[in-house]
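Slide 14.
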Amino acid sequence: MEDRLKGLKKALKHNVFHNVSFSEERRQAVKETIQAEKDPFKWDETTVLVLLNTINDRSLTGFQIAENMSEKDDHTFKDQEGRLYTLLHRLEQKRILRSEWKIEDDKNRKYYSLSSIGKRILASKAKEESGKSFVLKEVLEGGSA
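Slide 15: predicted structure.
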């Protein structure tokens, strides 16, 4: 069977793929796409922080979170709501979020809110960011950083 596959590969290369070639840029784009698909749970830190800030001090459904993030010009989950729920469940498993089922308009809805761990993460990130802005302000105003 292996010999037949070698023959098939040779025939395809000669007949079907004879004039097909990819630029190095396209090859790199394909490699990056494959890498991204290998780790579907790798999330952009900014997106996670926008999500955490969205539900800071309130409980929201996944749909409401997606709407609010879109209003804040973060369209990460536009036409990919499934990825949002994957992230929500992952954050819930890590106890960064907590959830609660509520009945509203005769429908069960899952509401997400920050846990104490999630609040600590946001607070430490805010503290880190305020330090950066202070350094930037000093540099812009002529002081030394």
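Speaker note: The helical segments are 2-15, 24-38, 45-54, 62-71, 81-93, 116-140.
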